[in-house]
Write a structure and sequence with these properties.
Structural class: alpha+beta
Largest sheet: 8 strands, mixed
Order of helices and strands: EHEHHEEHHEEEEEEHEEEEHH
Number of helices: 8
Mean pLDDT: 90
Length: 347
């Protein structure tokens, strides 16, 4: 895998929608969190955010041994019989198991939901805590220790470590937007973030865009930033220009030990479209694929509105201010199946 430390990003593309040889691969900038040259990191990140909204992050502080353990534990939850997994079905707080076809990310082009199953884990908030009344907060749904002994410990540790990585990336993003490095650390923005870990398993089905069959339909992420860890199976594609006709899709290659980071819709709103929340999807190629997404959003009451550094008299705000919780709740409702559909599986 070739990584690119030059601010110029290139890609080989094709418009062929038949399932391809992997020739159309996007070359993404690589941000090293251990480098002492912060200006270089800011420059690389800024160029990536202007070009594709996707980049790699390396030397992030999470060991490869621990990443391997997280993937091993993730596989164990999906290896359970379906009746055991349905006992862990997601609740109204979006915690727990999501079956295959539960999510419908691109209803215009998909004939069915996504051919993937997932598992949501958020910040653990006890049921008797007043904070648990908020959407996306509350106790998680955990498999019993008899069923999966080390599972909860592994996932809670990973959640904590991934959040620290996200905070480091957010500081570089702030500098790239001509803000103070700690801008996104402010209590009113990230004092009590909505940070959600999602384990994902794509079954070995071959996708066919011409027939509306996708591992994950085309979408942009809802929130601030996403950290994605993947196995070695290729499947993720990005489309830098969603308005192009035909759309040009490029594969993103897995990079061992790295996170693939992408910007979400809230950051695009904050930056007045200066930074991009890019359309992406997953195509299956007949091989099982596992990935681990970590979605980072601001605090519930955070008001997402155009940043001072991203507007002017000639470039006024393109979006009205919106509360984080209002925006997220609607996006989740729009893309997930109604829980009443699973009533028979829980009886």
């Amino acid at each position: 895998m070739e990584s690119n430390n030059n601010p110029t990003t290139t890609a080989t593309t094709t418009t062929d929608e038949a399932f391809p040889a992997f020739s159309n691969v996007s070359v993404l900038n690589c941000i090293d969190l251990l480098t002492s040259d912060i200006q270089k990191s800011v420059s690389l990140l800024k160029q990536a955010c202007l070009d594709s909204g996707f980049f790699y992050v390396i030397n992030h502080g999470i060991s490869q041994d621990f990443m391997d353990e997280v993937f091993s534990q993730s596989k164990k939850i999906f290896d359970l019989p379906i009746n055991e997994k349905m006992k862990l079905l997601r609740n109204e707080k979006n915690r727990g198991y999501t079956p295959i076809l539960d999510e419908y990310l691109d209803p215009v082009n998909q004939v069915n939901g996504d051919y993937k199953e997932g598992y949501y884990i958020g910040i653990e908030v006890p049921e008797d805590d007043p904070e648990a009344e908020n959407p996306f907060y509350g106790p998680n749904i955990w498999p019993t220790t008899d069923l999966l002994p080390r599972w909860r410990h592994t996932m809670e540790k990973y959640h904590q470590e991934a959040l620290e990585v996200a905070k480091k990336v957010a500081r570089i993003i702030a500098l790239a937007l001509d803000l103070d490095a700690d801008f996104f650390d402010k209590p009113e923005i990230a004092g009590k973030p909505i940070a959600t870990l999602r384990l994902l398993h794509y079954e070995g089905r071959v996708s066919n865009p011409l027939e509306g069959i996708y591992g994950a339909g085309a979408h942009s992420d809802f929130g601030f930033i996403t950290l994605l860890a993947t196995d070695e199976v290729v499947g993720l594609q990005i489309c830098k220009d969603r308005h192009a006709n035909p759309q040009i899709w490029e594969y993103v290659s897995p990079l061992k030990g790295a996170f693939i980071v992408n910007l979400g819709d809230m950051l695009e709103r904050w930056s007045n479209c200066f930074f991009r929340s890019t359309l992406h999807r997953v195509l299956g190629n007949g091989h099982e694929r596992y990935s681990i997404a970590f979605f980072v959003e601001p605090s519930h009451e955070c008001l997402v509105e155009c940043l001072p550094s991203c507007k002017s008299e000639t470039n006024p705000p393109k979006f009205p201010p919106v509360k984080c919780v209002t925006y997220l709740s609607q996006r989740y409702k729009d893309t997930h199946a109604d829980l009443s559909l699973y009533q028979n599986h829980q009886d």
